[in-house]
């Protein structure tokens, strides 16, 4: 793959008057954003036909910086808004950019139901194990023992494995990488954007400011080393005993299937309705 | 266009059914909802009709998702509606504020039931008046309409869509279990007989750059819907005319909020409608809204028979509120009675409007039944 310079991507897709972004030094959101834009660019998608949707959180600020139609909604509700956009105008391609708290805590119900319906949307999920925007409270993805301002002695609850959840709920495509796996990341987003139905690319993303600082990893490189330590590629994980996987996060491509998406299902439903009413043969 | 129900003739239908048919004739092509008594029949009718008119009807996971979906659909260009009752309406409040802030035309039907909490699911009440007007947080304004007959439920639904589009705002159709479930004769017009308002779209690229700017001096910016290449960014954060977040500047916030409130307040007289009955020479005024007004009319007749000059003011619009009109009325009458199916909500608005010029007395009733005309008469006669 030939990589355009980051400047080219920036100039082509970002709203210049919105820069600089609000992201802290060392934050991984910018990387995930760059991968998404590169994927759009590589696929040659028409920006006029893409709508970015988000909830609330640092990650959710992304639609403000990209020069596309964008809906920055309420905390956790991005996928519910997306359902309306997509069904009202199926020609639009929807990218939902969301945080782990946004998607899995307050938005958990919308998340599983959007997947169950196989809503045609590509979710780019920033998993930083924390609530970045509100200053480092624990997220439902936080591994046991990780600290947050609301679990100062270390998280005592079990974490959600978002990718796992998405696979069981019925997503068409699910992959998880850390933002340091840039080639895999871009390729996964390209795949996700090319498929119908619900597609998810989760990124483990460094948040040195709200998260790292409280967990003795003040910089992105420290977080990088930690990710290297805790992540296990899927092929390897399959051969590992469960005890060894305790506290680790599996990365890779978890599912790639082609169940019909919500738009296609609704089109068929409409035809069925008309037929049942005798309006159409 | 073929309709899944007869048009150009009368039909004997429930209020909920009338609302659904009116929505479809108003051009609604997106419905998202979550079942709740006494609003479910609206959803059921929409579920039946929408696929046939190439619209969407979808059952969401909850009311928060329902209103979110219709806001999304509206930005994708559709006229969109959801319907619920008190508990669901409470869940929707955050996103009603979002629709106010982002100036999204949507229609939200709240078929009130007795509350608080799950309260009396199958019985009528008017306990959501304050919630409809002030339920969401922050300074804001929106439009709240209230029908008193099934025919009015139909007519005001069409008007709700027209006002939503015209003023780029959420409109709440506030009705109650009594009207929702009552069957009455309703005239369902042919599409040609209905006047529809469509939202103002940007005339060109330049206008589209200011989705939140008062370009035409009427406080209502043209709405650049998604997918037209305008690259519009919509946020619930305080934003400038171009839609860029500007959250810490007092003047940006003030300009935005004052315009959003102003576009409703300054057009009060276009938005507000009411009916009067025997009010011209009245010494006693009854002010009511919704189903109670029907007992009010009968009460006025009985009072007149008793030689008491009573009259009725029936509010079809609950918000914006014409405080001045109430004050003028208060100057003409001796006393104002406010019968309502709650322990005093409309009463507060009327009292503020009357501004001490006339005594205002509340006739509250809760528990699920509408005031009988005699209950009102007895209070007036004393
Ligand atoms: C209804 C509601 N509750 C709480 C908040 C406060 N809030 C803003 S962002 C946020 C969490 C963000 O965390 P996450 O979704 O993980 O995104 P990040 O900032 O880490 O990218 C919270 C709780 C809110 N805006 N709305
Ligand atoms: S708080 Fe964390 S997630 Fe938010 S911008 Fe800063 S580093 Fe990124």
Automatic annotation (TrEMBL), chain A:
Keyword Oxidoreductase: yes
InterPro entries: 2-oxoacid:Fd_oxidoreductase, THDP-binding, TPP_enzyme_TPP-bd
Keyword Oxidoreductase: yes
Domain Thiamine pyrophosphate enzyme TPP-binding: start-end pairs: 56-203
One GO MF term: oxidoreductase activity, acting on the aldehyde or oxo group of donors, iron-sulfur protein as acceptor
Biological processes, Gene Ontology terms: cellular respiration; organic acid metabolic process; sulfur compound biosynthetic process
Record keywords: Oxidoreductase
Superkingdom of the organism of origin: Archaea
CDD domains membership: TPP_OGFOR
Name of the featured protein: 2-oxoglutarate ferredoxin oxidoreductase subunit beta 1
TrEMBL record, chain B:
The keyword Heme is assigned to this record: no
GO molecular function: 2-oxoglutarate synthase activity
Alphabetical GO biological process terms: organic acid metabolic process; response to oxidative stress; sulfur compound biosynthetic process
Ranges of residues in domain Pyruvate:ferredoxin oxidoreductase core: 282-376
The EC number(s) this enzyme carries: 1.2.7.3
Coiled-coil annotated residue ranges, if any: none
Enzyme class: oxidoreductase
UniProt KW keywords: Oxidoreductase
Pfam families in the record: PFOR_II, POR_N
Reactions that this protein is recorded to catalyse: 2 oxidized [2Fe-2S]-[ferredoxin] + 2-oxoglutarate + CoA = succinyl-CoA + 2 reduced [2Fe-2S]-[ferredoxin] + CO2 + H(+)
SUPFAM superfamilies: Thiamin diphosphate-binding fold (THDP-binding), TK C-terminal domain-like
Pyruvate flavodoxin/ferredoxin oxidoreductase pyrimidine binding domain mapped to chain residues: 22-258
CDD domains with a match to the protein in the record: TPP_PYR_PFOR_IOR-alpha_like
Superkingdom of origin: Archaea
Assembly mode: Heterotetramer of the KorA, KorB, KorC and KorD subunits.
Protein name: 2-oxoglutarate synthase subunit KorA
Organism per entry: Thermococcus cleftensis (strain DSM 27260 / KACC 17922 / CL1)
């Amino acid at each position: 793959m030939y990589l355009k310079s980051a400047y080219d991507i920036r100039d082509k897709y970002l709203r210049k008057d919105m820069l600089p972004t609000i992201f802290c030094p060392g934050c991984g959101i910018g990387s995930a954003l760059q991968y998404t834009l590169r994927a759009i660019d590589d696929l040659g998608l028409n920006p006029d036909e893409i709508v970015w949707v988000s909830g609330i959180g640092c990650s959710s600020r992304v639609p403000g910086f990209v020069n596309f139609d964008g809906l920055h909604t309420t905390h956790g509700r991005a996928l519910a808004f997306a359902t309306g956009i997509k069904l009202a105008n199926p020609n639009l391609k929807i990218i939902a950019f969301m945080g782990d708290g946004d998607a899995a805590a307050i938005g958990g119900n919308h998340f599983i139901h959007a997947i169950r319906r196989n809503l045609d949307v590509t979710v780019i999920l920033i998993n930083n194990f924390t609530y970045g925007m509100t200053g480092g409270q624990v997220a439902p993805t936080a591994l046991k023992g990780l600290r947050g301002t609301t679990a100062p002695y270390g998280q005592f609850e079990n974490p959600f494995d978002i990718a796992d959840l998405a696979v069981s709920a019925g997503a068409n495509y699910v992959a998880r990488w850390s933002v340091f796996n840039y080639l895999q990341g871009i390729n996964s987003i390209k795949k996700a954007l090319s498929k119908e139905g619900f597609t998810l690319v989760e990124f483990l993303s460094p948040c040195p400011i709200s998260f790292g600082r409280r967990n003795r990893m003040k910089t992105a490189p420290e977080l990088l080393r930690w990710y290297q330590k805790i992540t296990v590629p899927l092929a390897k994980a399959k051969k590992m005993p469960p005890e060894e996987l305790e506290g680790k996060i599996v990365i890779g491509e978890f599912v790639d299937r082609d169940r019909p998406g919500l738009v296609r299902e609704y089109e068929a439903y409409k035809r069925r309705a008309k037929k049942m009413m005798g309006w159409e043969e | 266009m073929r309709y899944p129900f007869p048009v150009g003739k009368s039909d004997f239908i429930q209020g909920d059914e009338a609302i659904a048919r009116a929505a479809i004739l108003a051009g609604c092509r997106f419905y998202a909802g979550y079942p709740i008594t006494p609003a479910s029949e609206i959803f059921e009718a929409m579920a039946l009709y929408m696929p046939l008119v190439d619209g969407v009807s979808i059952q969401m996971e909850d009311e928060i998702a329902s209103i979110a979906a219709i806001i999304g659909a509206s930005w994708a260009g559709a006229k969109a509606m959801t319907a619920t009752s008190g508990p669901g309406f409470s869940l929707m409040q955050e996103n009603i504020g979002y629709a106010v802030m982002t100036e999204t035309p949507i229609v939200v039907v709240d078929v009130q039931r007795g509350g608080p909490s799950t309260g009396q699911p199958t019985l009528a009440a008017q306990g959501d008046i304050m919630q409809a007007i002030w339920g969401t947080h922050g300074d804001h304004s929106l439009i709240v309409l209230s029908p008193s007959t099934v025919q009015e439920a139909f007519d005001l639904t069409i008007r709700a869509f027209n006002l939503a589009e015209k003023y780029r705002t959420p409109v709440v159709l506030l009705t109650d279990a009594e009207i929702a479930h009552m069957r009455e004769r309703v005239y369902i017009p042919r599409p040609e007989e209905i006047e529809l308002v469509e939202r103002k779209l940007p005339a060109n690229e330049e206008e589209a750059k200011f989705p939140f700017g008062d370009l035409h001096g009427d406080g209502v910016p043209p709405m650049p819907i998604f997918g037209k290449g305008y690259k519009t960014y919509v946020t619930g954060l305080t934003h400038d005319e171009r839609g860029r977040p500007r959250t810490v500047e007092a003047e940006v916030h003030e300009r935005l909020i004052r315009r959003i409130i102003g576009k409703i307040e300054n057009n009060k007289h276009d938005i507000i409608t009411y009916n009067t009955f025997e009010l011209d020479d009245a010494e006693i005024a009854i002010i009511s809204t919704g189903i109670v007004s029907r007992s009010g009319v009968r009460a006025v007749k009985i009072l007149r028979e008793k030689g008491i000059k009573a009259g009725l003011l029936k509010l079809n619009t609950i918000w914006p509120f014409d405080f001045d009109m109430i004050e003028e009325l208060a100057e003409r009458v001796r006393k104002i009675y406010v019968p309502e199916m709650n322990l005093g909500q409309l009463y507060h608005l009327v009292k503020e409007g009357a501004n001490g010029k006339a005594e205002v007395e509340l006739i509250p009733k809760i528990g699920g039944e509408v005031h009988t005309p005699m209950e009102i008469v007895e209070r007036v006669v004393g």
